[in-house]
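EI: anyone free to look at a 383-residue chain?
SC: sure, send it
EI:
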Amino acid sequence: MEKYYWVAWSQIKGVGPVLLKRIWQRFGSLEQAWQGSRTELGEVEGLGGKLIDRVIERRSPLNPPEVYAKHLEKNPQFWTPADQNYPKLLLEIPSPPPILYYRGKVGWRENEGKTPAIAMVGTRHPTEHGKRWTTRISNALAEAGFTIVSGMAKGIDGIAHTACLKASGRTIAVLGTGVDIVYPANHRALYEQICDRGLIVSEYPAGDRPDRSHFPARNRIIAGLTRATLVMEAPKRSGSLITSHYAMDFNRDVYALPNSPEQQQSSGCLDLIRRGAAMILDEKSLIEDLGGMPRLDEVAPQLSLLPTTQIDEPIPELPKPMDYTQIPKALLPLWHAISPEPTPFDLIIVQSGLSADKVSATLLEWELEGLISQLPGMRYRRL
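SC: here you go
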């Protein structure tokens, strides 16, 4: 029954992954939360009066078993945090996807956190240096038994997946579309190979087309599924750096591949190294470092219900901040919803009146422009 309620709660606009996990933590069960009174719901951080009214109004006509059955018609394969096979590492992050759709071959030890998974991300326009080293590292990690996780985008992502498959390794692609959509279209053959020998996952239901706002949120899943993130090549404003920031937020390790400062594609990697990311020097030393990371042989079942530790130290801001007066008028409600103090993502959505996808995409742009910084626990504040 609990799975029915994860699906039902996901239908309520304004209740995103961060807020839904807090509701789960408060009640211990989304089935119990579904019956929660106004007073009980008001005890959840970030759940204000207007949103509580919306929850009560929206849940009233819904029958969770019927909602689940209808959802299952178009989406036959998915997990919720109530499922035993939901990836355990994702339960550690502040914003686990309420529904994780999948296609391909499920790795049970992998979902239990007993097989180490490593993210490899980078620019869509890599240099020969980036291509060569991505192939070498992905091949070596696959042969050493690591699972390679990436986003199936052109460039570094596609190279990492391909090299892993050629080494007979296991790879997972995290999409910013439904699991039935191939994007980019010229990765059809790669998509079929991953389905046949690896796993495709997404938080978006079948039929969801590519949308710019989906990909920043997708990046948190890549970081959340893995014990470490390797940034193979990235300019300073690459979306790959968002994946590395999520990894830092989640207390996961970050590695970056160095190159000449004259190479614009590597400027983001060099900046990560300057800020404390470990350098990728060769396959052997990297595998030794990764092999020294603790493996989750035993995952405490109550881990996902523990309150998220709040750390107020921000991620260092990016250089050359944009003047906030350039913000379009339509986005000013979003700007005013973010205070100089840490503001939860779900509260920003409610106060701005914009959709979660629009808010997520805009926050990514503002973070890259140096207007805001993201803090642990999916909180944001103005710089």
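EI: The mean pLDDT is 86.
SC: 👍
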